[in-house]
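Dear H.,

Thanks for agreeing to be a second pair of eyes. The structure we're designing against is below in token form, covering all 252 positions.
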């Protein structure tokens, strides 16, 4: 599949395209899904970095630089993103950029062709931060012509090798349960356990000095509150009597 045949997914600046890619991956497989790693692996393999590095790129905690930035921009273009910087790049420099991004030329080889001793200068030139002479522009163009077929072949292979496949419909990937879901799925406590927990919380509340003042004022103004307290007291008194009886029987 050539670049022209690839359907445009999104058009924007590099950071915008990367953010869109991150969101699209999370829509396919929510954060925490085991299968999400498989969707990040093609990016990691193409760029020659670890999956953890890709995670940091996608969540915005760090940004690629130098060769990895060039490779990531080429990957985005490969999967249908139209990065504005690439779209506006002069054709000769664009092809030379892709020779590095797709691994036809190493950064050292590309720097040597242009007469640079430092790859950092090469990166600045390819990203449009440094200008170049007409002679260097011609070298870029010639290098692209000499390797045009090789570049097209690598692009086709890359589109087959590095595009993430959609999850299987027959075997949907289930996201890891969140802490809230895990708590919800746990076996619920029995009614008597729930009552004990509630009584423990009520006891702690009643023993607070501030609550004593509130309760006295509430009892004076709200007869319904007094009725609730009396009913609760009666229930607790019954439970207390039962506990005392059980303890006496147990000790005899």
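And this is the sequence the design step returned. I haven't edited it by hand at all.
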């Amino acid at each position: 599949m050539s670049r022209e045949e690839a359907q445009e997914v999104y058009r924007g600046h590099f950071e915008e395209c990367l953010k869109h890619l991150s969101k699209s991956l999370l829509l396919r497989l929510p954060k925490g899904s085991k299968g999400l790693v498989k969707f990040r692996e093609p990016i990691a393999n193409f760029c020659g970095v670890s999956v953890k590095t890709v995670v940091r790129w996608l969540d915005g905690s760090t940004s690629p630089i130098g060769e990895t930035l060039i490779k990531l921009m080429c990957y985005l273009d490969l999967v249908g993103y139209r990065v504005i910087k690439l779209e506006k790049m002069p054709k000769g420099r664009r092809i030379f950029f892709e020779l590095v991004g797709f691994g036809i030329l190493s950064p050292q080889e590309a720097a040597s062709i242009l007469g640079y001793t430092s790859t950092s200068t090469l990166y600045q030139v390819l990203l449009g931060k440094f200008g170049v002479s007409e002679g260097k522009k011609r070298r870029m163009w010639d290098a692209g012509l000499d390797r045009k077929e090789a570049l097209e072949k690598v692009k086709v292979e890359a589109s087959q090798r590095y595009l993430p496949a959609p999850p299987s419909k027959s075997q949907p990937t289930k996201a890891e349960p969140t802490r809230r879901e895990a708590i919800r799925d746990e076996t619920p406590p029995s009614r008597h356990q729930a009552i004990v927990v509630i009584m423990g919380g009520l006891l702690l509340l009643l023993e607070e000095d501030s609550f004593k003042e509130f309760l006295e004022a509430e009892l004076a103004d709200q007869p319904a509150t007094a009725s609730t307290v009396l009913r609760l007291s009666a229930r607790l008194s019954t439970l207390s009597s039962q506990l005392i009886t059980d303890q006496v029987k147990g000790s005899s």
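Two observations from my side: The first helix runs from residue 14 to 28. The mean pLDDT is 80.

Warmly,
E.
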